[in-house]
Amino acid sequence: MAAPIDAAWESIRSGLRRDLGARTFDGWLKPAELGAFDPDSGTLEMVMPSQFMADWVRSHFGERLTLAWKTMLPIVRDVRVIAASDAPRPSPLLILEEEPAPAQRRDPNAPKFDPRYRFETFVIGKANEVAATAARTLATSPNVSFNPLFIHGGTGRGKTHLLHAIGHAFLAANPGSKVVSMSAEKFMVEFIRALKENDTIGFKSRLRSADLLLIDDVQFIAGKDSTQEEFFHTMNEIINAGRRLVITSDRAPHDLDGIAPRILSRLSWGLVADINVADYELRFNIIQAKLSVLPGVQMTRPVVDFLARRVTSSIRELEGALNRIGAYAVMTGREIDVPFVEEVLANVLRANQRRISIDEIQTQVAEHYRIRKAEMTSARRAREVARPRQVAMYLSKQLTPKSLPDIGRRFGGRDHTTVIHAVRQIEKLRAADAELDADIRLLTRQLEG
């Protein structure tokens, strides 16, 4: 059957190249290689050179590929697009006429951790340093001083990445150990199913015998009393037996409404680590790290700087923006510069646009230099007041769309020429005064973050 599959693929390739156009086909589908074929499920693997290309082909051409294969060779009922790093060791396609060698059965309940999400690929900054360090410690150290580990933070900040990284590292450090990973919602669904099927013993045994239990998005059991009762006893069994427990949520324990107080108390016994919004420096470093694994995608520092400043809502959206830029660049053959990025990410940039006010700037600068905010609009000209005021004017010009006269009016009714002088003075001083330059960089990050 290997020959028919090869022949079918040649025919499918020709049709796709004709339908999609040479540029699109050559950029995305030409590198695809045939992988393993499972005759029982009818699943054929198509292998791409990188995870980025696999994700793109899967999302944009997955249905088309499946339909083409079903039409050309009906024995192929599903197509799975994977990256070369996820593919099995190179081996010939299965020959259907031969009896396949008995495969080692995989535990259907064993977690499938994403190979991309490891500690080595997690970029650390001030926003996530505590959570990352605690996660690695719990996963790799033979003895830990805290249990459970509770990680909280908003959507797209890296909680899922850390959960998968913990799973990978724990299994590497403890071969043969049992790891159970599920969302709180799945915990609830499986518990209810166990109740209906009169199999609560099996459910409890599977979870409570885990050497490591990972529960994602615990906020979803809010208000579910019977589920919370079982969850509480599961937590106790795991912790009391000296096994490890990691729980994530979008909120800190004390902000979780509808969760039983005894569960919140138990969560707080361990280590509570938050993941804050990524600041400019962390976003910049994440972009650099992602670019290193995006084939053929080149960005100059000004473009990276632009993205780090403008896409601020979440790391997940930042990664999506990078994938989109890379894909459009490959398809169009255009250079990745700031105008190109603005065009490709128009909707994303509009959604991320944060309106920084002059009032915010004055407050932040006054706090930084430890002066009263009222000094921003006062007539005093003492250096300890005048220089912070000039810095605030400079930042108002850089970070807001306000006109020079508008800025002047917000600084005690000053003339626009005063604002021009302040901007030019700060620009000149930044080039010669490293301390002032550092102050302005810090203030900018705080205001934009």
Features:
449 residues; alpha/beta; 19 helices; 8 strands; 10% strand
Write a structural description:
This protein has helices at 2-20, 22-29, 51-72, 129-140, 159-173, 184-196, 200-208, 225-240, 261-269, 280-291, 301-310, 315-332, 338-344, 346-352, 358-369, 383-399, 404-410, 416-432, 434-448; strands at 33-38, 43-48, 78-83, 149-153, 179-183, 212-216, 244-249, 271-275. The strands form two sheets. Strands 5-6-7-4-8 form a five-stranded parallel beta sheet, sandwiched between helices. The protein has a three-stranded mixed beta sheet with strand order 1-2-3. Helix 10 (280-291) crosses helix 11 (301-310), helix 10 crosses helix 12 and helix 16 crosses helix 18 (416-432). It has 19 helices and eight strands. The model is unreliable at 89-106 (pLDDT under 50). The chain is of the alpha/beta class and 449 residues long.
Question: Any chance you could write out the topology, listing elements then pairs?
Answer:
Blueprint: H1 2-20, H2 22-29, E1 33-38, E2 43-48, H3 51-72, E3 78-83, H4 129-140, E4 149-153, H5 159-173, E5 179-183, H6 184-196, H7 200-208, E6 212-216, H8 225-240, E7 244-249, H9 261-269, E8 271-275, H10 280-291, H11 301-310, H12 315-332, H13 338-344, H14 346-352, H15 358-369, H16 383-399, H17 404-410, H18 416-432, H19 434-448
Helix pairs in contact: 1-2, 1-3, 4-5, 6-7, 10-11, 10-12, 15-16, 16-18, 17-18, 18-19
- For this structure, the quaternary state is single chain
Which geometry do the CA atoms define?
A: flat
Structural class: alpha/beta
Count of helices? Answer: 19
Order of neighbouring strands in the sheet with most strands:
5-6-7-4-8
Instruction: Please give the alpha-carbon distance between the first and last residues.
Output: 57 Å
